[in-house]
Here is the input.
Amino acid sequence: MSKHKESNRMLDLLHSMGGYIDENGMLQLKHGFCVGEKVPPCGKIFRDFAADMEKIYGETGLSILGNPEGRMLHQFRMYIDRHNIAYIRRNFKKEGMTDEEALKEYVRAPLEWGGQNGAKMLREPARLHNKYPSGLSYRKYQKGHENKKRLTPDFHSEFIIDRDGSFVSQWNVLEEDDHGRVISDINYYRQKYLKQGKEAWEEAQRQIMDTESFNYASKNDKVHERLDIQPPKLFDTELRKQIAKEWKSPCKHAKALGDIKNRYCYGSDKGDGYSVSNS
Here is the structure.
């Protein structure tokens, strides 16, 4: 099979879901996300999606694509994210539990119950998920409130967790209209949350900017850089691009990064189904 035909497999899948890019640069799935609700975050189908993308674009990245193909392939990841956090909340979150507690239950649950059978989650630094407003310092804004990141053992499905054990996700903010389309107009969200006060709008922006992001790569390497880290600059939704103008990520070499990397590297992680490696 030629690379051209292989590359069409993912696009064919998106077209079968009714995928198109709307007026605000957001991928819409007219026929819905056609992956069964019972597929877990570490499901083989997601590994297959990722393997196809790595095989085709692992050496070049998505920058060789234009619109709409580049946007569609990049933004498809956010629908996998929505599926994953809904899966954890629907199947493992009981009354009174935090999202993180539900995630731990998923890790412990046997395969036949839709869990990971005790396979430990990976821990990665959450630099790109601890953004802060331009004009403020990282330490003054974020210190003591750092988010942490956990990934399924295959590195693909990602969860961002705040200090209270809640998932940080753009899907805590994004809504659908009466026709099932995700509302992509920033003005809708700005007006809604500003009515509740400036702090509410700031928190909504944080959810959108610090959201989880499914990885097409299978480890933290150059392929991860090409497929998962670089594409947002080109192919993110206009909603995220507009908000991003007012937010920054900590510099890779900033002293504050020690807070992010070490904040959760403590003994209480041992035995709870989470990785204890210092990756």
Summary: The chain has eleven helices and seven strands. The beta strands are 19-21, 27-29, 122-124, 132-133, 148-151, 158-161, 247-248. The CA atoms of residues 134 and 246 lie 5 Å apart.
